[in-house]
Recover the amino acids of this structure.
C-alpha cells in the first residue's frame, strides 16, 4: 500500500464509527485525510487524535443532504480518494414508517452518496486526474431482513449506483466500488448485539461472531490503493460468511 503515501482523501461521516476508523486507517498509511461530517466538535477531536499519532488531518463541515456544503468541501480541493460513508438507519415495522423517516433515510443513504460521488468525480475530471471512490453499502443491499426497509432499499440503490457510475467514469480514470459490510460492532449497535435477538443473529453467522472495524481494513485499502487498480464496479462483501449462511 506504499502508493497511498502522499495522497489526499475525504471521508464522510467521519465524526464517529466506521468513518472515523477509516480516516485513521488511511492516515496511518500516509494519506492526508479530510474528515467530513455535520458535528464539527467530534470531527476536531478525531482529527486531533490522528495528528497526535503523526498523521495529517483536517476537517470540513459537510451534510450529505445539503448540496451547498458538499460544493464547499470540494471547492479548490483535489482528492485522490473519497470514502462515501455517511449514513443513518431507521428501524421499525414498515407499515408504521412515517413519510419523513423514509425520506430522511433515502436522502441520506442513497441521494447523499450520489451527491458526494458526483462532486468528487467533477473535481477529479476538472483536475485531469483519476481517483478512487469507495461507497459504503451493506449486505442489506444484497440480502434483506425485517424492519429496515428504507435502509435496505437505499443500500441496494448504492450497489447499483456504484455500478452505473463505474461504467460512466472509467474513461476518466475514476474507479467506483462498493464495500458491503455485514454486522460490524460499533457504539450504535452494541446494545442490540448483546440482546437475545442480537445473539440469535450472531448464531447464524458461519464464523460465529460479528465483525470489528479492523476486519474492513484490508478491503478498504485494496479499493483505495493501486492494489485494486483494475477493480471498478465491484461490490465486496465482508461479513464472516453471513451472506452464504444456510436457510
Amino acid at each position: 500500500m506504499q502508493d497511498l503515501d502522499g495522497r489526499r482523501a475525504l471521508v464522510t461521516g467521519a465524526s464517529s464509527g466506521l468513518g472515523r476508523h477509516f480516516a485513521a486507517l488511511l492516515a496511518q498509511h500516509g494519506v492526508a485525510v479530510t474528515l467530513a461530517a455535520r458535528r464539527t466538535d467530534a470531527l476536531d477531536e478525531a482529527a486531533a487524535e490522528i495528528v497526535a499519532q503523526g498523521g495529517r488531518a483536517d476537517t470540513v463541515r459537510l451534510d450529505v443532504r445539503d448540496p451547498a456544503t458538499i460544493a464547499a468541501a470540494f471547492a479548490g480541493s483535489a482528492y485522490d480518494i473519497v470514502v462515501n460513508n455517511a449514513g443513518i438507519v431507521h428501524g421499525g415495522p414498515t407499515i408504521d414508517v412515517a413519510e419523513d423517516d423514509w425520506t430522511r433515510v433515502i436522502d441520506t443513504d442513497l441521494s447523499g452518496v450520489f451527491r458526494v460521488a458526483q462532486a468528487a468525480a467533477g473535481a477529479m475530471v476538472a483536475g485531469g486526474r483519476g481517483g478512487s471512490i469507495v461507497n459504503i453499502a451493506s449486505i442489506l443491499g444484497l440480502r434483506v431482513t425485517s424492519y429496515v426497509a428504507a435502509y435496505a432499499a437505499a443500500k441496494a440503490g448504492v450497489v447499483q449506483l456504484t455500478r452505473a457510475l463505474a461504467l460512466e467514469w472509467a474513461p476518466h480514470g475514476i474507479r467506483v466500488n462498493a464495500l458491503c459490510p455485514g454486522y460490524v460492532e460499533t457504539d450504535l449497535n452494541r446494545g442490540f448485539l448483546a440482546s437475545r435477538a442480537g445473539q440469535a443473529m450472531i448464531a447464524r453467522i458461519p464464523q460465529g461472531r460479528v465483525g470489528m472495524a479492523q476486519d474492513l481494513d484490508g478491503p478498504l485499502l485494496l479499493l483505495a490503493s493501486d492494489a485494486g487498480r483494475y477493480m471498478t464496479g465491484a461490490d465486496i462483501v465482508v461479513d464472516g460468511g453471513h451472506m452464504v449462511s444456510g436457510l
Summary: The longest helix spans residues 99-126. The longest strand covers residues 174-181. Residues 2-240 form a domain with the Rossmann fold fold (CATH 3.40.50.720).
